[in-house]
Amino acid sequence: MTAVDRLIERVDRLVTERPLAVIAAFLLVTVVFAGGLTGIETSAGADQFTQDIPAQRALDEIDEEFETSIGGSATSAQVIVSDDNVLSRDALVRTLETQSRLESRSTLRVASTSSHADAIARQLDPAAESAAERRDAVAEATPADLRTAVADADAAGAVAPQVSVDYNPTAQRAGTAIVGITYDLPDAATTARVTELQTRSVDVVDSVPGNEAGENAILFGDGVLQSEISALLIDTAIIVFPAALILIVGFLIFAYRDPIDMAIGISALLLSLLWTFGFMGYAGIPFSDSLVTVFPLLLAVGIDFGIHIVNRYREERETGTGIGASMRTTTDQLVVAFLLVTITTVFGLVSNVVSPFDPNRDFGIVAAAGIIFTLLIFSVYLPAAKVLADRWRERLPIPEFGTTALGSGGSRLARVLRVGVDLSRIAPVAVVVLLLVGGAAGGAYGTGVNTEFSEEAFFPDQDRLETYADLPEPFAPTEYTFLDVLDLFEEEFEQNFGGSVTLYVDQSVRDDDALELIDRTTRNPPDTFETTDERRAAATSVVTVIDDRAAQDPEFASLVERNDRLGTGVPDRNVDEVYDALLDSPAETQARGYLAADRGSARIDYTIRPGVDNSEAVADVRALAERTPLEAVPTGSLVVNEAVIDLLTESAIRSLFAAFGLTALFLALSYAYLEGKAVYGLLNLVPVLVTVGLLIGSMRLLDIPLTPINAPILSVSIGLGVDYTVHFVHRFVDEYKSGLPVDEALDVTIAGTGGALTGSMLTTVSGLGVLWLAVIPLLRDFGILLALGVFYAYLCSILLVPSLVVVWGRYGGVVGLGLDGGLRESSVEGGR
C-alpha cells in the first residue's frame, strides 16, 4: 500500500466512522480563521504595481523635492474652486477664507496653502503673513487697487499657472483656479492617516460661505483618490457577489437537485471563503483589485469538487451499495484526482510569486492557500457531512429529492455529452488535428495582444456608473469626485497626465556648466518630442524659468548676460548668484518647481507630440538620459507605465512557462508513481495547451489587453484546464485498468464524469462571468477571461480527450508510450 493509499484510507475511516467529529473539528478551525477577518485592509489603484520601479522612485523624489502647482506628493492636496470669475473680489475673498480655515485648524496639520489669491493679496499688502490678513487686504482694497494688484501679480507670472486656460488677462477673468495644500506629515505617513486628514479638510472647505464641496470646491489628493478607488472594490462586491450568488445557487439547484445536498455544498464553499479571508488577515495581506478574482476562482474549484463528490457517490448508491461503502469508493477515486488538480493548480498560482508586482505575488499566495483549504474541506468535510445527512435520512422521515447522477442514463444531457466519444470512434485523428491546429492558431494570433497599464485603467466605467446610479441602496455606486477632477485638469488646465516625459537630474546643479548641460538636452530633439520655432524640444526647466524672468526683468537679464561667457543666453558661471536672484523674484514659485531647495537636483519636462506612440516617446527619453553627461533618470507617468508594461509581459511569460513546466513534471511523475505510466500525465497536458492557446487568441479577438490584474490568467488557465482533464483522464484510467476496452472505458467515463463536468462548468462560468457586471473594466475583463478559460477547458475535456486517448492507444505504442503496459495485470494482482 502506497503512502497515498494510506492517506485515503485514513480519510475514509474519518468520513464514514466519525463524521460528526470531523464536522465539529472543521467548524472549530473556522472559528479560529474568523479571527483573522478583522485584520484585513484594502489596497487599490496603480500605486500597487509601481512601488519598486526606478522611474517611480524618481517621480516620488520629484514630488518631495520640488514645488508643483498640480499634483504633488501623497501628503499634499488641491482644492479646485470654480466661479463666474475666480479673480473677482468675492471669489478671491472666498478662496483666502478657505485657506485661512484650513491653516487655522491645528488638527488638520496643514503646513501651508497657496493660490493665485495669495499673490494678488501680497501685491496689496506685502506685510500680510497669514491667509486671514491677506483676505482682509483683498476685502478692503478699492476696485482700482485690486485691478492693479491682479495686473502686477500676472506680470510676475503668479496668476496664469494657478488658473484655468480660459484666463483673459485683459478682462481679468477665469472660471477655475487651484488652491494648493501641503500637510505637515512625515513621508512614511499611512494612506489611512492622509485620507483621514483630507476627508476632514473637505468638511472645512464646505463650511466656508459660498463653497459647496464636490460642486464648486472639490478637494483632490492622494488620500481621497485612494479611498475612492478602494470604494470601487466595495461597489463591485455589492453588485457582483449577490448576482454571483443568485446564478450559482440556480445552477447548483440544477446540479444537486436536492436542498440538503445543496446546503452541504454551499456550506463547504462558505468555509473555503472564510478560511481564505481569515488567512489573509493573519498574513497581513491587503485586499486589492487582484484579490477580487481569487474568490470566484475558489468558487469555481469548490463547485467542481462538490459536484464530483456528490455525483460519484450517487453513482454508487444507484447500484444498491450502502452509505459508507459508497462514500469509500467515491473518496478512493476522487481524492487522488483532487490532489492532482490541487497541486497542479497551486503550481499555476504559485508561479505568480516570481512576479515583480506585490499584488500578483499576493494573488498567487492567497489563491494557492485557498485552493489547499478547498481541497481539505471538499475531501473531508463535505463527504462527512453527506454521510451524516444520509444516515439521518434513513432514521428520520426526511424525503429524498434528486438522487440520480447528473448526466446518467438516457437523458438528453447524456446524449449530448457522448458527442466527443462518438467522434473518437468516427474520426479521432481529424478531431485531434483540428483542435491542436485551432489551439496553435489561437496562440499565434494572441501573440499580438496589447498590453496596458495606467492609473486610468483602474477607474470605473462611467457609462456603467450612470446605469447603476438608478439602482436602490445599497446597490447604487458611490459618487466619485476624482473623475470630475481629472476632467477639470484635462479641460480647464490642459493637464492630460500623459503628454510629457521628465528627466530627473539627480546631481548638484551648482557647477558652472550645470545650466548649459540642462539646456543641451533640448537640442536636436527626437521626432517624438514637440519642438519650438528654434527646432528645440518644447521643454520646461530652470533654464526656461531664467529665460522668462530675464525677458520681464532688465536687471535680472543683465545678471544673466554678465555670467554668460559662451553667449548662448545660458549662465555658465556664478550660477548660485543667478539662482539667488531668481528665487528672490516673483518667479520663485515657478523656479522651485524645477530646482530643488538644496540645489542638489533639478527636473526637465518635455512635451510629447500629439498622437505619438507612448512606447516610442519613452524609448527616446530613456536614450536621452543615457547620452547626456548629467546623472539623469527618465520618469513621468508614461515612463512608469511603460516600465510596468515591460515587467508585465516578462512576468506573464515567465509565470506561464514556470506553471507549465512544474505541472508537466508533476503529472508525469504522479502517474508514473500511481499508475506506472507517465504517459497519462502527458495526456492531461495536451488539452491544457489547446485551452491556453484559445484563451490567448480570445484576448486579442475581444480586444482585452494584458494588464497587471489579468496577467495571472495565463498561468491560472493551466490549473483550470488540468482541473477538467484530470477528472476525465483519472476516471478513464480506473475503468481501463479494470479490464474494459478503450471504447467501453470512454463510455463509462463520459457517463460518470460528463454530467459532473457539465454542472461544474455551467455553475463556474456563471459565477466567474458575473464579474462582467463589475464597475471596474479590469475586473470585468478578468471575469470574462476566467469564464472563457473554464469553458475552453470543459470543451477540450469532452471533445478532445476521448479522441486523444484513442489516437494515443493506436499509435503511442510505436514510440513505446502506449496506453497498455502491465496496468491491468498489476491491477488484478495487487489492486489498490
From TrEMBL:
Keyword annotations from UniProtKB, A to Z: Cell membrane, Membrane, Transmembrane, Transmembrane helix
Residue intervals of the SSD domain: 265-388, 643-807
The protein's name: SSD domain-containing protein
Top-level taxon of the source organism: Archaea
Transmembrane regions listed in the UniProt entry: 20-40, 232-256, 263-285, 291-313, 334-357, 363-385, 656-674, 680-702, 750-775, 782-808
InterPro entries hit by this protein: MMPL_dom (IPR004869), Mycobact_MmpL (IPR050545), SSD (IPR000731)
A GO cellular component entry from the record: plasma membrane
Native organism: Halorubrum tebenquichense DSM 14210
Topology versus the membrane: Multi-pass membrane protein
Stored Pfam families: MMPL
UniProt xrefs under Gene3D superfamilies: Multidrug efflux transporter AcrB transmembrane domain (1.20.1640.10)
Subcellular location: Cell membrane
Family, similarity comment: Belongs to the resistance-nodulation-cell division (RND) (TC 2.A.6) family. MmpL subfamily.
